[in-house]
Amino acid sequence: MQFTTRVRRIVITLFVVLFFGQVSLSAQQKPAETAPSVATANASLPSLQNQIQQIRSQFPGDMSVYMKNLSTGDQIALDADSVYETFSVIKLAIAAELLRQVQAEKISLADRITTKAADERLPSGVLYALDPGLNPTIKDLLTLMIIISDNEATDLLGDKVGRANVTAFMHTLGLNKTSIEYSDLDWDRKWLSTLDPSYRNAAGNQTIDFPFGKYTDPQVRQAFGHTIYDAGIYFGHSTTREIGTLLEMIASGKLVSKSASGLLLGIMEKQQVNDRFPRYLQDVRIAHKTGDGQPFIANDAGVIWVKDQPIVLVVFTGHHRGETAALHDSIARVAALVVKHYGGSLSPDFK
């Protein structure tokens, strides 16, 4: 399908890559020679929390933040137990269940799935733009699901492992507020049928051909927002604390197995959607996963290594009442403040 320039802008703004991972603070970075001691970091933690709270207080919407320094034990939890729409951050849970089934020898990463036209999903990633009949491995699909948030790969894997199994595994891990029920295609059908009821049961390749040109930008945005908040459907549900706990398991080599954790962490380090957490960071190792429902929601969740200290950071947002660029910048600034606090380097444009 050839999208018009306007329609491409709409879809990209709403999805970025993927489904269905603002305040200007005056701060000049001076790279530290050494990381703060545990005692110093703990003593100054309230200052970092206050800086993050300042961003939250001026954010035009809801924001949840969870941070844990796995070396010092420092924690910040701001609205960290409220359930948010994760969008594509829930793909970490799909990946976890997939690796559990690989460990149990129910699936092999070398197994292949042949793509069909009906598997295509609204633009997120790359598979929707390629001809059906490809034969990627499970590992290929896992990689595409994480690093470019490919929704065709996501639904293929979700169907393979079973979404109920994903939720059950999360609950087994003690993550009782983390769940996935609907597919990306379910969500797309609900959204598009708000505009045109004939799309209520559309196949994936039919959604790709949706006539966005018949509708105004405000109509498309209103339908998208309605689907998020009023349609009784979601892509992923969780809290920043629970996703943070999942990330801690991954970073510590305790999710499924050390090798499984290492594999997922390595894939996350290849993330291609870097307009949030990495925005202001320099020479910092990071493994993360975004979630997108702009301009209403944008999320990011990952592990950032600062002076060899692994730091879990999760930021979820909701009900944002501004534009996407400002939404992304608020999330980026939270990560910058955390990295600065522990002695990491920031780019000169962080002010």
In short:
The chain has 351 residues and is of the alpha+beta class. Helix content is 42%, strand content 14%.
Description:
- The protein has 351 residues and is α+β, with helices and mostly antiparallel strands.
- It has one domain (5-346): DD-peptidase/beta-lactamase superfamily (Beta-lactamase), CATH 3.40.710.
- Helix content is 42%, strand content 14%.
- It contains 12 helices and 9 strands.
- The strands form 3 sheets. The protein has a 5-stranded antiparallel sheet with strand order 2-1-8-7-6, sandwiched between helices. The chain has a two-stranded antiparallel ribbon with strand order 3-4.
- It starts with a helix and ends in a 5-residue tail after the last strand.
- The model is unreliable at 1-41 (pLDDT under 50).
Give descriptors for this structure:
disordered N terminus; alpha+beta; five-stranded antiparallel beta sheet; 14% strand; 351 residues; two-stranded antiparallel ribbon; Beta-lactamase; single chain; 12 helices
Number of domains: 1
Number of helices: 12
CATH homologous superfamily identity: DD-peptidase/beta-lactamase superfamily
The value of Rg in angstroms is 20 Å
Shape: globular
Q: What name does CATH use for the topology?
A: Beta-lactamase
Query: Got a strand count?
Result: 9
> From N to C, what is the helix and strand string?
HHEEEHHHHHHHEHHEEEEHE
Question: What is the CATH top level name?
Answer: Alpha Beta
Poorly predicted regions are: 1-41
Average pLDDT confidence is 90
Strand residue content: 5-15%
Q: Considering DSSP H and I runs of 4 or more, what fraction of the residues is helical?
A: 40-55%
